[in-house]
Amino acid sequence: MKRFSVIALAALLIVALAMPAAALENIFGGYWRTRAYTQQQFSGDNRDESGDLSQVDTRTRLFYTAKINDNLAFINKFEFDAVWGDDDLGDIGADGKVFEIKNSYVDWNQGPVNVKLGIQNFVLNRGFTIDDDASGVKIIWKLADGIYLPFSWLRIKEGYDTNQPVDPSDLNKGDIDSYTVAPLVYLSKDIKIMPTWNYIHSREGRDLALGGFPEGSLSNINAHVFGLNADASFDFASFWFTGAMQAGTAKVSKNFPIPAIAGEDLDLKGWIVALGGDANIGPAAVHGQFFYASGDDDSNFAAGDTDTDLDNWVQYSGESYYWAEIMGYGIFDTQVSNGSPADKVSNIYAGNLGATLKPMDKLSLTFDVWYAALAEDNAAGDDKLGTEVDLKVTYQLVEGLNLDVVGAYLFADDATGDDDPIEVGTRLSISF
Q1: Residue 72 sits in which domain range?
Q2: SS3 (DSSP) at 236
Q3: pLDDT of 1-33, one tens digit each?
């Protein structure tokens, strides 16, 4: 796979450079970072050092766009990561074995319709539904000035790509597909709304785990997500809102080890609400947000359970919403503190208040306070995750090269553990 990827990239660049300059505009870009950080007591128990981590890593992303004309472009994004000292790339010799193709798609305009087809990024409901790269198509129809009708389809899982036995006469039974309609309406140049409808379907969802059910335990998924997003931006402040609810069913496999719900339809009833904003107040920019993702008070699926309602906000595939440094990944997204759902937000509510100061053009200071708790108690009967304090200092060393220094401390509560997690690190980054 590595050899094929390198050959494909080389061939792509040769073709691009060989074409006449008048026929093709080559656009190159990228992102590079190196981070050094330490995370201590993330396991919640100082007798268990599995949550202690200190390392240095590097990420490189290279972007290449072949702009063939004003209505057609071919876009590619490549990535390779290395933990310093790791055998895959960061050790002595540094012969890389990791080469990732993040995006490869064609983007063209067909009159009032824009089409993006291939491996690309999909975002819905600010990441609470999805924010990830996937294979699929986006079609955006401009109905009028300020009114757009986007449609997308992506393949979450191909039916034959499974570790479980598949009847060769019906390889499509395991396909999992996601369809989205998300009209975008600009009420003015400063205010926009986007209602969304997302439908996830599979005749045999063997490899999609929902609401605490392990892979291989569900089938016949017919799931809906209805959402609404709103954004308003003014000279002095900006605000945003996202709300969504889940509906539909997912059938439990007949051989599921809990007889009371084996073969039954689960009713999807999760919901989420999130809002935030920022404002300029004197020398500081103040920001804050709050989100609540429903939980399920009967999610342990004990042998006697008969409740077939999934009340928690269910994670389907590709969800990602970063928030606090320690509890929600933040800049150093290797692990999170014990008990937190990380970027897969579910069964949690959290609030944040922070401010950013710029004492000089090249220097900014950002201070944040987060409080988070579980919406429903965990198996031990605990619910409070704790209060987190984050401090980030950003300085522009030279134009285009930024240095971030981060310190974070979580005052742990019962659902996190006995010890307070600590994170300290730096990041050097460039974008071009």
Answers
A1: 1-102+322-432
A2: coil
A3: 445 455 555 555 555 555 555 568 999 999 999
